[in-house]
Amino acid sequence: MTIHSIYAAEPAGPVTPASPASPAEPARASAGAWYALALLVLATVLGAVDKIALTLLAEPLRQALNLSDTQLGLLQGVGVTLFAGLATLPLGWLSDRFDRRLVLAACVLFWSAATALRGTAQDFSILFIASIGLGVGDAGLGPITYSLIPDLFPRAQRALANMLFTMASLFGAALGAMLGGGLVALTDHMRPLLPAALQAYETWRLVFFGLAALGPVLVVLLLLMRRPPAPAAAQAATAGAPAAAGISFACYLRTHWRTLSGLVCGLGLASVGLSAIGAWVPLIVARQFGTTPAELGQGLGLAFLGGMLVGALLGNPVLSLARRRLGDTTGGVRVVTLGNLLTGLLSVLLLFARSSNEMFVVMALLVMPLICGAIVMPNLLQDISPAHLRARVISALTVASLVFAVLSPLLVGSLSDALKSLPNGLAYALVAITLLTTGGGALVLHATEPSLVRLSRAMRSAS
Q: Where are the beta strands (DSSP E) in 34-127?
């Protein structure tokens, strides 16, 4: 059964004036839309800093609480990623139904409270509970953002908005690493000015407390944002009509589960290795070369920024060429596939770095091939999803990829513990996992490419 037959069998119902397909759609986005996009970027940066803080502080935290590499893997895999995935689908449902400002503001408050709880941890169990809270709070950011952008920006500007958000988010993640490292140094510098009750706390605890205090500030800015257009599902329910595109969420999943499964498996396999690089390289640098958290944050931030700048400059011509020769969807999927594979192959260079600076250079090289894929993915996800189901489809794909996200840090941590007799066992474990998973993911994505193209074309013709 094809998507065309589904749309033919189920009448689409009246199209409201706010529908993305409406002829009244403005040619250009309003100033409020760009302000909202800026706030989404700020939320992404704050979330990135909160998450990367654990990575930057992993070594002093491990020593203070006597943690193993397997436990660190559990904190970043099961603690953050698993429960973030489980929370994504209900948060996606809320995002399709209610004011997304309020949903996002609640998420920010929740993850800020979890960050503060991290600062109080006396053992692994409290740290694990706090990591669960951070993951749950952060889970709403993706569904809200990628469902909101198509409602704020007309189709002519949607690709630009997606690209700006993705690039700003990537640069924000790099800036987050630098800010996180700088915050560690600033915390030590400002310690004499803190209340006497706080001066006795370890630096890593004070950093978590400081980050938690930024959340309420962002919440105020979000509540001052102009209320965005109502989600398509909420508009349809208010009008007493069926959803704009006429297809239910369950029917969409039943019809296209093979294509969606291929996408999840291809991206998920690759993400096992790619996520492991970001999670474990900082610990390798700190452990092998004695790099401080401040130096680590600055070095990683510069590496990410440099890699993304070069990747963006080289990637745009490559992406344009691929799209001209292969078509939008085929070219985009091909760039994602080859970018992931190239990053996996380049990870071997981690074994030959002999200083922290050389490790940072390798990190910059690893980031470059991923930029084009990061720019392409939002447009691809929006193109294969009905407008009224975007948040739920993205959430469902996130939940389906949980097994890969959880395995990523846990596999490397467990293999590292098994190879702890080797001088560089953690690096060997990381490279082995990355090569295996990026190669497998590339094969699956290549096999799924034709069905993704057909689904994208069907959704565009039905919109």
A: none
Q: What are the φ/ψ torsions at residue 221 (nearest 5 degrees)?
A: -65, -40
CA distances 217 to 45, 221, 239, 422, 426, Å, are: 14, 7, 36, 47, 39
d(CA 459, CA 386): 7
Ordered alpha helix ranges (H), 57-82: 58-65, 69-74
> CB count, 10 Å around CB of 19?
22
Closest CA relative to residue 366, chosen from 274, 271, 272, 269 = 274
How confident is the model over 339-393, as pLDDT tens digits?
Answer: 888 888 998 998 898 888 888 998 888 888 877 777 777 777 777 888 777 777 8
**Nearest to 437, CA basis, from 265, 283, 304:** 265
Helix (H) or strand (E) holding 383: helix 370-383
Measured CA to CA in angstroms, residue 96 lies from 110, 226, 315, 356 at distances of 20, 18, 33, 45
Containing 138, the helix (H) or strand (E) segment is helix 124-138
Nearest to 59 by CA among 406, 296, 362, 363: 296
In the chain, the N- to C-terminal Cα span, in Å, equals: 18
Q: How many CB atoms lie within 10 A of CB 324?
A: 10
On the question of pLDDT at 129 being above 80, the answer is yes
Q: Is the pTM of this model over 0.70?
A: no
Query: Nearest Cα to 277, choosing from 342, 195, 372, 228?
Result: 342
Q: Are 189 and 57 in contact (CB under 8 A)?
A: no
- Nearest-CA neighbor of 306 among 177, 134, 205, 394? 177
Radius of gyration of the chain (CA): 22
C-alpha 273: how far from its chain's center? 15
Q: Which residue has the tokens 């909160």?
A: 50
Nearest CA to 372 out of 326, 334, 327 is that of 334
pLDDT in tens, 64-123: 777 777 777 777 656 566 666 677 777 777 777 777 788 888 888 888 888 888 888 888
Q: Which tokens in the block code for residue 349?
A: 């260079």
What is the token pair recorded at 65? 């609480």
Contact call for residues 456 and 380 (beta carbons, < 8 A): yes
CA distances from 190 to 294, 422, 437 (A): 14, 40, 44
Residue 266 contacts residue 335 (beta carbons within 8 Å): no
Q: How far apart are CA 19 and CA 437, in angstroms?
A: 40
The answer to whether the beta carbons of residues 406 and 77 sit under 8 Å apart is: yes
Q: Helix, strand or coil for residue 139?
A: coil
